[in-house]
Amino acid sequence: MLDIKRIRKNPQELIDAMAKRRGKGVDVSAFLEIEERRRKLMAEVEEKKATRNSVSADIAIKAKAKEDTEALKAAMRSLGEEIKALETELNALQAEVDAFLYRIPNIPHESVPEGSSDEDNVELRRGGTPRAFAFTPKPHWELGEALDILDFARAGKITGSRFCVLKGAGAKLNRAIISYFLDVHAGRDYHEIAPPYMVNRASMTGTGQLPKFAEDSFAVSGTDYFLIPTAEVPITNLHRDEILQAAELPIRYCGYSANFRSEAGSAGRDTRGLIRMHQFDKVELVQYTKPEDSYAALEQLTRDAEQVLQGLCLPYRVVTLSTGDLGFSAAKTYDLEVWMPSYGRYVEISSCSNFEDFQARRAQIRFRRTPGAKPELVHTLNGSGVAVGRTLAAIIENYQNADGSITVPEVLKPYMNMERIQ
RNA sequence: GGAGCGAUGGCUGAGUUGGUCUAAGGCGCACGAUUGGAAAUCGUGUUCAGGCUAAUACCCUGACGAGAGUUCGAAUCUCUCUCGCUCCGCCA
Fold first, then answer.
1. How many angstroms separate the CA atoms of A40 and A36, rounded?
2. Which residues contact A161 (CB under 8 A, 6 or more apart)?
3. For the whole model, what pTM was predicted?
4. Å between A112 CA and B56 C1'?
5. A42 beta carbon < 7 A from strand B?
């Protein structure tokens, strides 16, 4: 959510930002008109309330002095009805203003390249080199099924499409990846969190999944809970409605969770393999920082995420998302993309974003610069560190051998107690 | 699922025969005094949001878990909901 005062003061900034995002235009002038009416009406209501408050105080004094207060009470009765009617109108306007504010995306940072889509993302750097295979590499779903470590058919039977059953060494490899990621990050000053996999509506609103993207999440029937689409939601909401102390910042968390996404609108895309699942594992990194530190933190967070790919010796690259590809809540995002032989290209495996105060304003996460100072909004950041399912796929493909076996990456051997999966 | 109790500021904790209550006291914190310096002590101050505004000044409005109601007036009375605790039941 953006600062309404900032929009009032500089509507052009918002108009320009929306143009850069190439999204459907938000009608800024219509918004400003409603907001103007809201403020006028609010002033009117407050004035009437001030009258009622002072007269009510008079009534108390007169009643004590045994004077007649019936006339005043009658006058206040009708004033009360007036106030009630105006407040109903005011609430409606407030709801309109809120609905608008909750659906405006964040303003991209000035360093974000302008563009219309992911084709305009800018490559920043690469790590490792795609392996030159002496044989024709197979996709991970073929290798996985042949080794009987991935079972899509039975997942389809017991649940449905876009689910997968991991078996034997596949399940173990998945577990090894999670443990390795957590050990790396928790060993570098990220406090480990094991969050709930369901959250309430306020949490989903706090990080920006609601109200605009309700169809992307799974709601739990009979409750007001949602399955988390990412651990970002519970971990960023950990400090919702809190005022932190400056000395506590930056706060750095890492956490593993399963993630659930409806993948509405992606029918037909990535239908084979582990790339696009309704349920997938991920280790997430989250930071809360002072505003002036957030862009340095974004660089660091991205490096921290990259480290596990380097550890696994997986070829990857880092791209800066263009304004057209930037997510709703983010001001700036770096994607980490891993080399996927079956796709013949780099595939997103992590998304590292600075949300500035966009989520903090929604979730009311603040801090005091010095004891007694006025609370200010923190900046929030997060990044995958990294997606586990896609890592599993990348390992299977990049570490495959001519005979269809998979060599276990060096750093995972201590977790696996095996050299290869065959 | 059943019964009972509770939710107040950064924290703790009064206030529930409705009326100068944003709300005592304490802790914490800030500033000052004291001190060679510190501790201790003393004094003063210290909620947040919105509106107005050049203003983080003044003034006005709102907020005592959330929402609705009664009333001239609600932390206080009524209803609904959420969360927490205790006991019972069930259960990995």
1. 6
2. A271
3. 0.93
4. 32
5. yes
